[in-house]
Each structure stands twice: as structure tokens, then as C-alpha cells.
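Contributing new records

If you add data, match the layout below exactly. Sequence lines come first and carry their own label; structure lines follow with theirs. Keep one chain per record. Anything else will be rejected by the validation script.
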Amino acid sequence: MHFHGIAWTHSAGTPAHNGSRDLVRLVPSGAEATKTETATVVVIEKRALVRECLTRCLKGASGHTIISFPSVDSWLEACDDIAACLIVLCIVGKPNDPEPHREICRLAQAANRLPTIIVADVDDPDQIVDALDSGARGYVPTSAPLEVVVEVMRLVKAGGVYVPASSLLAARRPSDGTASPQGSNGMFTKRQAAVVEALRRGKANKIIAYELNMRESTVKVHIRNIMKKLKARNRTEVAFITNEMLHAQNRGAG
């Protein structure tokens, strides 16, 4: 996701940086916090630069009032004084990792439970399902453009649920009738199997990323993991080894 601006935001009780000017006072601090300054959307993101950029971008693109917090704890401390209607929770890592999973569940179980959208780097279907099972109402990978995030906000605010269909369809996309390396004793995940199939066809990382709707950096991670599993030194060996695996499967099936 690309960001085009920076806004200084402070959660309740957090002092301004020394020597800096409070450019956008989105959340009043201390005794100034009142219900007269209400918020439409809450952004929770622990990385300061990403938080400030995302806050400004969402405000400009959606027209909503946006407030931001560095953690779920800081939001829950201030939530009684803020009339919010939606939460955008940014996840670093996988949604089913212990800390992100705990944060999603805490928001879902809070007394003032609000519909929550997850924004995460991971777009694996299993991870998406885990996030929804934990209480999220929407899931947007960071590979999506800003306009998609804004539309998802509107949908979830209206009571809908959003998942990236392209990610789910990519995971279910069949090959051309040949066996899949995923069938070899469960060696590969669905996403890895899709990458292996693309490598067998000699496709470049950029093409694989486009066709499977993932980042090129994610494709590289999958390829490294595939090479480790196969003890291959490069992508050419991956293609050779997996071709042999498929031939062996086909002979066994025959």
C-alpha cells in the first residue's frame, strides 16, 4: 500500500514529541478528551510512521474523521470517551500468531465491540479464515490499493463482511489436469503448490505475483521455503525435482 502524507496523531495521554508541532490534533489528551470530538474510524497500528501515513491517507480518501492508536490497550483505555463506529487493525505477522490473535479476540470481546477490519501482509486463505473466526468482519491484504480499503470500510460499516475473493480463488485455482506437488505427503501448502506450478512453467516472479495476487517479496519467500523443503539450490532445480515428483505420482496412479 502506498501512502502519500504524514499526520501527527497522539493517543489519549500521550505527549507531543519534543520540538515538534502537533499538525493534526485528532485525539485530545488528558482532561481535554470529551465526547464532543467524536471519531468515525479508529486505526490501530504500532509502527508510528505507518500509523501516521495511514491516518492521513484514509482521512483524505474516505472523508471520515480518523483517529489512531499505537495499540489495542491504548484504544481500550480511551474508547469510553470516543464515539467510534469502525476499527482498522493493522497486523504485523500472521493473524493466528499469538499476539495478533489475542488482539483480534480482545476487540471482538470488548464491551463496546465494534466491527473490525484486519489489514495484514499475509493473504493466505487459512489466515483469512482464522481472522474471521476470531471476530474480524473484514480482511484486506496490504497489496490492495487504498481505494479498496476505503470501499471495505464502507461495506463493513454497513453491516457487510469482506474477504479478498482473488486470494481464495487463487488458492483453489486448478492446474491443467496434472497432479499437484501438494499431494506428495502434504509437502507444500496450497500457496506453495501454486508457486511450484508456476515455477514448473518457467514464469518470472513478477508474473507469479500478479497471477496469484501476492507481493513479489512474498513469492520470493515461498520460493526460498520450497527450495529448503526440496534441498534445491535454485529455481531450475525446483522445477526439475517437482517434475520428477509429478511423473512418479502419475506412474503410481496408473
